[in-house]
Design goal:
globular; two-stranded antiparallel sheet; mainly alpha
């Protein structure tokens, strides 16, 4: 009955099309493993020999958390937009302002994947088409420079010769400036990234079925090479087990000296766990497409479960072989830390000559395109459903004839062109954007892991297509606080201002929501928002969980602030 009601009450231009099953969502989410390329260098640079363990622990946490999301997604067969939408409804009884915070934080966590991914892909393309030449103190050009400039050291000569031989496009910039903790620039990386973003937009314009069909083939071209990169070094005996010891934090980030398990060491470890979560938890996007599933009752759980298994395999395998082959000094090299040389390193681990090397780099670029497509599909549907449900401005609820939420996609695109200009500037700006967006992601996860038990208390009478074991809901609630520790302690590892910038960005939802709710809707939510639960707005006055949700929020903030105070570098 709720399906019929929703279909009747929502305007025709606001309906997505039921065109895919769980396999379609699996392929759309198959871009998530490529997120390892975003921060594998940064995590190695801050955690050293512990890096592979960081990825394993984070992936296990993400997999266990996903069962909470699978349950609450099943309550809403007529909604898209992901766990943030489903979890927001649980918080609505307790605060109008906490509920949209979940939606907003999920969006600004996922959306920057577009710009960050395009900046890395553009760097790979520039490395392939206009590489920076490598010189040693024995290179003829260096020897000639030293002869012509008596008294010049070999290091200074290499720097001078490299600068002279670097292609002009690598240094070209139309405009650049510094604003607060970040820089922004309109350079070659920006323009190549913008073109990639427009290409991806045109593919997604065809709707979810077209997107899933395209991503199925790209996904196969990407997953198989990532498996090769993960397996070949193990089979060929390239793994050096000495690269996994000693298992202690670094004494300082980006320096090879081992440290100790003290406050500073734990802070770097928590910083690694903080940034890894942005990648390893990401397969929850598989439940973004519930209202586009042909059979949401069975497709929802299968989509997130099998996507999780794929991520479990690749997020553990690739970082393990990456560290086993490169070692600590290799992982601390500048092109690895800033991300621009990760594709070269992974391709080099396989061997096979110049052709195989070039082919693997092209496949890594495809991997980034795949995860960018995943992010655009998921984040635009979060904006769309947030608009349909009364959280975000009305104009975002429009879809085209193919069932694609085009206005939400355009909003994503314009926002990410701005972020792309920042991410293209330097590694500091790149990781600042990543850390700020991950603050939003941790907030979203905190709210939604607790939404699982809130839904059980307030909506326990509603049939669930798949019901998580109660102990898993409990584990998710505990992990909510563990994530708060990661955020409070770890964000500062990437930028001293990241935590506070993330909290300010999260607070921006207040004026946005007030405009929609009080100005556009006169203080009332659309009735169809609660149709899946068989409720009306009047039912929101019943709060079976009592004070528990409020105490949960207070405890979460306290844990975050305490971790921020205690853990320092």
């Amino acid at each position: 009955m709720s399906t019929i009601t929703t279909a009747l009450e929502q305007p025709a231009e606001s309906k997505l099309h039921r065109n895919i099953d769980w396999r379609g969502a699996f392929w759309v989410a198959s871009g998530v493993p490529a997120l390892v390329l975003f921060s594998i260098g940064g995590i190695a640079g801050t955690t050293g020999t512990l890096a592979f363990g960081i990825w394993i622990a984070s992936m296990i946490m993400g997999f266990l958390q996903s069962f909470t999301y699978a349950e609450i997604a099943g309550l809403f067969p007529n909604k898209s937009g992901g766990a943030s939408i489903y979890g927001a409804t649980a918080w609505l009884r307790y605060s109008k302002f906490i509920a949209p915070l979940s939606v907003w934080c999920n969006w600004f966590a996922w959306s920057p994947v577009l710009s960050l991914g395009c900046s890395i892909a553009a760097a790979y393309i520039l490395n392939a088409l206009a590489p920076v030449p490598l010189f040693t103190d024995a290179s003829p050009d260096v020897v000639a420079y030293i002869a012509a400039h008596a008294g010049t050291s070999a290091a200074d000569a290499i720097t001078a010769v490299t600068a002279a031989a670097t292609p002009a496009i690598r240094n070209w910039t139309l405009f650049s400036h510094t604003l607060g903790p970040v820089s922004f620039t309109l350079n070659a990386t920006f323009f190549i990234g913008a073109v990639l973003m427009l290409i991806i937009f045109s593919i997604q314009h065809r709707g979810i079925l077209g997107t899933a069909n395209v991503q199925k083939y790209i996904g196969l071209l990407v997953i198989i090479p990532m498996l090769i990169v993960g397996v070949v070094p193990i089979v060929t005996g390239q793994i050096n087990w000495a690269n996994f010891s000693p298992l202690v934090p670094l004494a300082a980030a980006y320096a090879p000296e081992p440290g100790a398990w003290n406050i500073a060491g734990w802070t770097l470890v928590l910083g690694g766990m903080f940034i890894a979560a942005w990648s390893t938890y990401g397969f929850e996007t598989a439940v973004c497409y519930t209202s586009e599933f042909k059979n949401p009752g069975t497709d929802t759980f299968k989509a997130i479960f099998y996507s999780g298994l794929l991520c479990m395999l690749l997020f553990i395998l690739v970082p393990f072989t990456f560290q086993g082959v490169l070692g600590l000094n290799g992982m601390l090299a500048t092109p690895i830390v800033d991300g621009s040389g990760v594709a070269d390193a992974l391709a080099g681990m396989v061997g096979g000559g110049a052709l195989i090397h070039s082919l693997l780099i092209m496949l890594m670029i495809l991997a980034l395109v795949l995860c960018i497509m995943t992010a655009m599909a998921g984040s635009s549907r979060t904006l769309y459903q947030g608009s349909v449900d009364g959280w975000l401005p009305r104009y975002l609820s429009h879809v085209n004839e193919h069932g694609a939420p085009t206005r939400a996609m355009w909003t994503d695109l314009c926002f990410n062109l701005i972020v792309l200009a920042i991410a293209s500037a330097d590694a500091t700006s790149f990781f600042f954007i990543l850390a700020v967006s991950n603050c939003g992601y941790i907030i979203f996860n905190f709210l939604n892991l607790n939404a699982g038990w809130i839904h059980r208390i307030d909506n326990g009478h509603i049939a669930r297509p798949w019901k998580a074991p109660s102990w898993l809901l409990g584990v998710g609630a505990i992990f909510a606080y563990v994530n708060a520790i990661f955020m409070g302690a770890g964000a500062k590892v990437w930028n001293p201002m990241a935590l506070w910038a993330g909290l300010i960005t999260a607070a921006l939802i207040i004026p946005v929501f007030c405009y929609r709710h009080y100005i556009q809707d006169g203080g009332k939510f659309p009735e169809h928002m609660l149709a899946d639960l068989g409720m009306t707005s009047a039912d929101l006055k019943t709060r079976k969980a009592g004070m528990l949700p409020y105490l949960t929020l207070v405890a979460g903030v306290a844990v975050m602030l305490l971790a921020n105070w205690l853990f320092v570098i």
